[in-house]
Amino acid sequence: MKRLLGIVILIVAWGGFIFADPSLALDVEVGQQVQLKATNPQGVPLHENPFPSLKGRLPDGVTATVTATDREKHWLKVQIPSQQGWIIEKYVAQVLEDSVNPPPNPPINRLQLATYNVESPNFNPRDTTPDKVAEEITKHPEVILWGLEEVMDQDDLEQFTQAMGSKFTSVLGETGGQDRLAIAYDQSQLELVGSINNLSGSGGSRNPLVGKFKLLANGTEFLFMVNHFNRREEERRNQQADFVRNWSNQQSLPTIIVGDFNFDFDLNKRRGNTAFNKLNQDNILKWIQPDCLASNNCLSTQCNPNFNSILDAVFVGGTAKNWSASSSIVPFDCSKDATGFPDHRIVKAELKVS
Question: I need a labelling partner for 10 at 20 to 30 A (CA). Which of 134, 282, 315, 352 fits?
Fold first, then answer.
């Protein structure tokens, strides 16, 4: 009992990781200013994401601008001149009236997307459970476009889509058996122009899944492709890489290409396999490298210790190569893999569409 009490006290003391009470959700809008209050001398905990991911602290009493919220407004993304990040709504002392202004960097032309290998339980039904996948997805309310790999069936995809929110819809790929690709998107921010297509001729076990979308905020149209390259068959994987690169080069619209490419980009040697080289050949595609590479502190995107490398990634082609972009590998405790969570980390990207 004493040990349990000590753990509880430690959690409370460490960054205020207390989830918001649903009854306390604030009436606050993006663009409004809020005055913050700290509950201890360390300041207001500031998080990287809308879940416990402490990155720093803000001073007590500071005024910040709200630039985003989660769906229930229990987490607020706030910005002051020198910092930005997520806070729990309980640290808001007051919402400043008549303070509705455009956010410092209006997010309307920003496209936030993610690729996630959800590890289909096809080969081991006890390995991954859809509810655990959905739990991870709910932590990223800012994402409006998802590329999913290893989706077992329509039932699983519907559960994932529901976790994204009521404004989302999704399409499941037709190839891959119980190990398929899928696209999910927020219909309030993106319009599907036409249908989502399964491209044949790639040489892989699963045809790439492609959708033509319009970002409603500014009318920009682009193509979004999801892939899962073969793991064990090098020749087929290389053929897939050539196919994707050549396909992008033939398009007149900007292209965004995501997925699990199995290109084994070694974090120590800073090089990948032949498929990686083929994807980057002739500068047709641009890899949106995770920010952590610059600081040399990247996590691998897959929990298997045999793959201390990046397998999952986001590429852009055509005029999308001119867009300002960044990506990140979402931290995940790999010990949870044994409890029903997927063995891949989510890779997110933010693109300033122009």
Answer: 134
